[in-house]
Amino acid sequence: MSDRFAAWWLVLVGVLVGGAIGASFPPDRVIDMMGEEGAVEQFTALGFFLVAPCVWLLRRAGDPPQTLAALSVVFLAFCARELDWHKVWTGTSVLRVSYFLGPAPVQHKLVALLVLATFALAVGWLVVRHARDWWRGLRAHEAVAISVAAFLFTIVLAKGLDRSYSILTEDFALAVPMWAKAVVNAVEECLELTLTLIALLALWQNRRREGDGR
To answer: Which domain holds residue 156?
Structure first.
């Protein structure tokens, strides 16, 4: 059986499992399970940490080392983000412009800028070097390209779910019940965990395919 669309099945499983968890337990327990110190968040961080070396372990002879390094940086950054290391180190989020305009120590700002710049360069390399080949592969229904598309879609979906509760309650002043927040939170966290599986799937698909290492 072709694994061409396997990544999308993983996305569906993530949604169904998250929805089932959110609907099967009391809302406060679900929110606790899916919190920063919860098991799902920790497994997601561990997953991204393990994917980084898998980039090299599952590489092919034709894979550019710059791309492998960039992917490793991106997955390690995802791991650090899941663990909120930037908040642990600074006490706040360094992902906002207001942090760099605030009273934080200059050395903290410089280190934060260096980390963010490294991540931006890694993403930029991947886009510049591979976006065209990815789009061509997507149009040709190549398995790796489809998995990458599923990965990007899942990031956007999880981020949208993460922001949905605050948008509805703060921007639109809607009264969203706690059970709905719990279900959305569970789906979001399960989707983020699914990202690690999609990444491993794409690496495995890349290892199996023939070609020039696009």
So the answer is: 6-208
**Other beta carbons within 10 Å of 39:** 12
Q: Identify the sign of the CA torsion 27, 29, 34, 37.
A: positive
Residue 147 main-chain phi, psi, to 5 deg: -65, -40
On whether residue 157 sits in a domain, the answer given is yes
CA-to-CA dists, residue 9 to 5, 16, 80, 123, angstroms: 7, 10, 27, 26
Count structural domains, the chain: 1
* Angle, CA of 166, 195 and 147, to the nearest 5°: 125
pLDDT in tens, 16-31: 999 999 999 999 899 8
Q: How many of the other CB atoms lie within 10 Å of CB of 188? A: 25
Burial (Cβ within 10 Å: 0-12, 13-18, ≥19) of residue 19: middle
Token representation of residue 9: 């099945």
Q: Is the pTM of this model over 0.85?
A: yes
Backbone angles phi, psi at 44, to 5 degrees: -65, -45
